[in-house]
Design brief:
It contains 20 helices and six strands. The protein has 448 residues and is mainly α. Pfam families: CBS (PF00571), MgtE (PF01769), MgtE_N (PF03448).
Length: 448
């Protein structure tokens, strides 16, 4: 947050705490919608509703559209029914669907019934696609032009739909059956002669089917650096467009979810400061309980090798080193492969190639760390203990990297989020197996 934004937030909070709506309106007056959005995301639910009601109608709609769907749902609970109906009607169909997913069924049904027939039909079309598909994130409000249409007529059509189309910078080109045959940019239309056919200036189209997972389609749009990606049905008939801003929002949400689950928590899906403490607790407690149960494996391993520890107490000093190094190595591999999966650099069928590569990487890392451990520990506790540590780090790093690299691919094959199988679970698994390796090596080397 910049110094100016911090000053603005302080002024808003002072006006709210003093109960002075006049002062609050004076603070909000010169702010842009982006500035208001930044402030709103850092306030509690009650203060959000107070601040929002002081905004002008145009600014209010822009701010509302910029909020995440869960935060939109929170805000609606503090507004009057007529305000809610007006805001809902002003959203694009895809944004309405995202909001409806956050609302109780009774409220969602009432809002849908309040729409005009054409807007209700557009919203119902998007609602008809499966959860998680790009059909629910596309915009049905687009300008399509026919392949045989003249450039002049195409530009006239664009001009007629400037107020109701999601974007006009990329135009899908269709045939008489509304099947996608290409795309044409507004720049190319303006450059072409007025009597040329659109088909003569269009280019080949990249497209996705409406049932494609949203993250996959968004990645396609971002990787190809497209302003808009046509969305079709199974017969390649045009049904909507995925715009670049919606694609980036999908990717941001997916990456936030992966990062949260890799850290052992559920994504908050709303700004941190506007999230109730109880919600944060719920997002963390289940994972902590699951990991606590998993950590009991480590206790069982220590109990099984209690005799070994009694015979060589010095071995207990290096337990944190062994499990920490193994967990970190596994986490590095899992994070790398999870990210590679998201970017489509690797696929589940590459599991053997990934296993071989990560085993080599783990072996190299283990050799380097093991050599350091051998030298340092040998100087302090003797050659035999140093050899135990060196060999253990060599084996544990190789095992951890291999498991960490393979588990996200296995998760994808099982249609489970790879991040779920990432850092927390791999750490727990490697802790237990690392200790087993450690004590078995100690028994073999020390003759215990």
């Amino acid at each position: 947050m910049t110094a100016r934004e911090d000053q603005t937030l302080s002024a808003v909070e002072d006006a709210l705490s003093g109960g002075s709506l006049t002062d609050l309106r004076a603070v909000l007056g010169p702010l842009s919608p982006a500035d208001v959005l930044s402030v709103l995301e850092r306030l509690g639910r009650k203060d959000q509703a107070v601040l929002y009601r002081l905004l002008s109608k145009d600014v209010a709609l822009q701010v509302f559209e910029g909020l995440d769907a869960p935060l939109q749902s929170d805000l609606l609970s503090g507004l009057r029914d007529d305000e809610v109906t007006s805001l809902f009607a002003g959203l694009d169909p895809d944004d309405r669907v995202s909001l409806l997913d956050e609302l109780p069924a009774k409220v969602a049904g009432r809002l849908l019934r309040g729409l005009s027939a054409p807007e209700r039909a557009k919203t119902a079309e998007v609602l008809g696609y499966p959860h998680g598909s790009i059909g629910r994130r596309m915009s049905p409000e687009h300008v399509a032009v026919r392949v045989e249409t003249s450039v002049a007529d195409a530009l006239a059509r664009v001009h007629a739909h400037l107020d109701d189309a999601e974007t006009v910078y990329t135009l899908p080109v269709v045939d008489a059956g509304r099947r996608l045959v290409g795309v044409v940019s507004l720049r190319d239309l303006l450059r072409a002669g007025p009597h040329e056919a659109v088909g003569s200036v269009m280019t080949a189209a990249h497209w996705v089917e409406a049932t494609t997972p949203a993250e996959t389609a968004a990645r396609e749009c971002a990787d190809r650096k497209l302003l808009a990606l046509p969305v079709t049905d199974a017969d390649r008939r045009l049904v909507g467009l995925l715009t670049v801003d919606d694609a980036l929002a999908v990717l941001e949400a997916a990456e936030s979810e992966d990062a949260a689950r890799a850290g052992g928590t559920e994504p908050l899906r709303r700004p941190y400061l506007s999230t109730p403490a109880a919600t944060i607790v719920r997002s963390r407690v289940v994972w902590l309980l699951a990991l606590a149960v998993g950590a009991s494996l480590t206790v069982q391993v220590l109990d099984a090798f209690e005799t070994t520890l009694e015979q060589m107490v010095v071995l207990s000093l290096f337990v944190p080193l062994v499990i920490g190094t193994g967990g970190n190595t596994g986490n590095q591999a899992a994070t790398t492969i999870t990210r590679a999966l998201a970017l489509d650099d690797v696929r589940p069928r590459d599991v053997l190639r990934v296993l071989g590569r990560e085993a080599r990487v783990g072996l190299a890392l283990g050799a380097m760390l093991g050599a350091v451990g051998l030298c340092v520990v040998a100087l302090l506790y003797g050659t035999q203990v140093g050899l135990v540590i060196g060999l253990t780090l060599l084996i544990v790093c190789t095992l951890a990297a291999s498991v960490g690299g393979v588990m996200p691919l296995v998760a994808r094959s099982l249609r489970v989020d790879p991040a779920v199988f990432s850092n927390p679970f791999i750490t727990t698994f490697v802790d237990a197996t690392g200790l087993v390796v450690y004590f078995l090596v100690a028994r073999a080397v020390l003759g215990l």
